[in-house]
Amino acid sequence: MYESLLNLSSDPIAEFEKLQRELQHVLGTGLGRPGSIRALASGAFPAINVASTPSSMEVYAFVPGVDPSDIDLQIHRGLLSISGERRPARSTQEGNCSVYANERYAGPFKRTVSLNDQVDTDKVEAHYRDGVLRISLPRREALQPKRIVIQ
């Protein structure tokens, strides 16, 4: 129990993350609460990853079982909105089916990502493949880092 007091790490961030994991283990993250400050509660649909490169911002939305025509992407006032609907499985719609467990989310969904002022909204591209929606938001060319050649 007092192991962390005897073996103090030189990385306070790592110690804080370890403490956070231990608290989550003891208290549980059930109750619909998120596992971290920036994440949504477990089971939020669709799950998303947001990454940044020197030339763009990349958003990955994991939407298995959703037809791309059922997904709506919009950018308005610095917010990227991903919305749509996931249809229920056919077996649960049939009248002669007894459902014992239904863990697959079905119904309307909406996720919103805040964009910074560096994104060039006129050059946004979205691609859907194997249940993953990849949205590439390039940075404005004037704001991208430029290498200067020394002569």
Describe this protein's structure.
With 151 residues, the protein is an alpha+beta fold. The protein has a domain at 67-88 and 106-143: Immunoglobulin-like, CATH 2.60.40. It is 16% helix and 31% strand. The protein has three helices and seven strands; from the N terminus they run ααββββαβββ. The protein has helices at residues 3-6, 12-27, 90-93; strands at 47-52, 56-62, 71-76, 79-86, 107-114, 125-129, 132-138. The strands form two sheets. It has a four-stranded antiparallel sheet, with no helix packed on it. It has a three-stranded antiparallel sheet with strand order 3-4-5, with no helix packed on it. Strand 1 (47-52) and strand 2 form a beta hairpin. The protein is flat, with a radius of gyration of 21 Å. The termini are far apart. This is Hsp20/alpha crystallin family protein. InterPro entries: A-crystallin/Hsp20_dom, HSP20-like_chaperone, Small_HSP. It comes from Pseudomonas alloputida. Belongs to the small heat shock protein (HSP20) family.
Using brief descriptors, characterize the structure shown:
151 residues, alpha+beta, Immunoglobulin-like, three-stranded antiparallel beta sheet, 7 strands, 16% helix, Hsp20/alpha crystallin family protein, HSP20-like_chaperone, Small_HSP, A-crystallin/Hsp20_dom
Name given to the CATH architecture of the domain at 67-88 and 106-143: Sandwich
Task: Indicate the overall shape.
Answer: flat
What strand line-up does the widest sheet have?
A: 1-2-7-6
User: Total strand count, please?
Assistant: 7
Q: Helix share of residues?
A: 10-25%
- The third-level CATH topology of the domain at 67-88 and 106-143 is Immunoglobulin-like
Assembly of the depicted chains: single chain
